[in-house]
């Protein structure tokens, strides 16, 4: 159903100075054609487009009354013809307001064939949606003029337009059809393999990044969650297509510096001090470093990877930006750094648990809506530091159980060298798959090359030892 109450009256500019009164968008001939077609062929009430029509989608009051009566008859499995329709309108006392018996007879006469009912139904829906948008814009304008709503709430309201329903497709899927598809993919090996993370062992455990799934990467500070997340995002951009990122902690230049150091295998510390002009002897970039950085810049400069630059975006603004980016050209991945810093509007704003719940629910819905994988980075509670075994578990996720509930996959990062300087696991990170909705939990060991802010497969380190 389209948002808002049925429109009655005329649209005018709210400051009364520019647009003047205007007649709301409508198409009388299309409305007549829909009603007349149903009288000619009552089975059309099951048409996938006409079934989405509500009485308020009709502009004229008489047509709303007629469509409501047709709906009542359909609910009783009574075909709508001149006799049954006039009887129903008489029972509700609406016959005269609907134009009377003469008007009903004229509806069918104005439509020579019912073959184009779906086409006219789409026209009625399009004009109904235009009216709904005008009402929505009017609501935004009234609040903006009145100043009775917080600015960020008005902005959020403006970014959530009425739903557009044209009824093109049946949104249900037969379970039997889905089973046959699963069997075919299993027998032929044609199922989705997911987008590669760039880490073979992690791909083996997860099956790659699957569309429609929410992946949460969580760790304590300095474990490398941002490095892992953006490294994977860059690899997806290289191998699969467009990626959009959003970080509240790091500007695009810092993310790019990390990616450049990882690609070029140049010490991030050298790159950092050279950028600010404070390089001491021995810390300066070598000529070999410069050559590697130039070559890597050439390889990465044209990556289809963009970072949203406005770190103050609230949740609904952020979701709107991602949707618009996907509409311009389909995305292969969206990455958020990180969940707990995203701000929301309304009652959830001052409650950390409610805020995180709203964020994770929106991210999961976004992954399903756009049919892309979404990576969201997350903090962990400090309680993990108090245990003898400091490997994270799902209950360590900070501020909300909703992260565990909404995420399809949760990957924790643990590096023993952070807590045990004498460990024999120097330069090794454990990617602990603490939740995997479509597979087993597991632990994947990878190398952590701290100077380059880079993760690699263990086999890579062995072959380059």
UniProtKB/TrEMBL annotation:
Belongs to the helicase family. DnaB subfamily. Residues 188-462 form the SF4 helicase domain. The keyword Flavoprotein does not apply. GO terms for cellular component: cytosol. It comes from the Bacteria. This is DNA 5'-3' helicase. The keyword Protease does not apply. Signal peptide: none annotated. It holds the Pfam family DnaB_C. Its EC number is 5.6.2.3. Keywords: ATP-binding, DNA replication, DNA-binding, Helicase, Hydrolase, Isomerase, Nucleotide-binding. GO terms for biological process: DNA replication. GO terms for molecular function: 5'-3' DNA helicase activity; ATP binding; DNA binding; hydrolase activity. InterPro entries: DNA_heli_DnaB-like_N_sf, DNA_helicase_DnaB-like_C, DNA_helicase_DnaB-like_N, DNA_helicase_N/primase_C, P-loop_NTPase.
